[in-house]
Amino acid sequence: MRWNNLKSLVSATVLLTLTTVSEAREDFTKVYQPGISPAASLSQQPLNTIEQAADTGNVQAQYKLALMLEYGEGVKQDHARAAALHQKAAESGSIGAQHSLGMMYYQGKGVRTNKINAYIWLAMAADNGYESVNIARDRVAQELSESGLVQAKRAYQEQRSNRSSTSNNYAMLEQ
């Protein structure tokens, strides 16, 4: 089995483990083509088309390109650029990007490890409907000190109040 296929299999297994069956099925079928890894399915669109759409502020294109960069599917792997694109999409209300960005902060992929930021973005994704992210958010919360958790919750509430209308607008676009 080739490394990319193994990596895709592991990614899909993690996705299925961390999400409920219905959430996983919905996420997976949006990007999966039989015989092709999920991130590779995204790259079936011309790269320049995805990049142009991402550059003009298309949140879905930002998220797709971020995934491609994060996993090195169809492009050279670039965690820093992936994190920056996840940030843009997350700030615009993309629940998937909020989850991915939270995990990147937790793992220190493309950004410095920052458990407070990890908690904030994972909590944002969970509150926007990605319920299974609660497990990851709660694990991050357990790893924070008491004062760190208070700080993370306060910062989350501030961001939540600033982004509530943006997230609601994005959720309506996805329907």
Whole-number total of structural domains = 1
CATH topology: Serine Threonine Protein Phosphatase 5, Tetratricopeptide repeat
Number of helices: 10
Strand segment count: 0
Order of helices and strands: HHHHHHHHHH
What global shape is seen?
A: globular
Q: Summarize the biggest pleated sheet.
A: none
Which residue ranges are poorly predicted, with pLDDT under 50 across at least 5 consecutive positions?
8-34, 167-175
- Beginning-to-end CA distance, first to last residue: 37 Å
pLDDT averaged over residues: 77
**Estimated helix fraction:** over 70%
Please provide a written account of the structure:
- The structure is a single chain.
- The protein has 175 residues and is mainly α.
- It has a single domain (3-174), classed as Tetratricopeptide repeat domain (Serine Threonine Protein Phosphatase 5, Tetratricopeptide repeat, Alpha Horseshoe), CATH 1.25.40.10.
- The chain has ten helices and no strands.
- Helix 1 (3-18) runs antiparallel to helix 2 and helix 8 runs antiparallel to helix 9 (134-143).
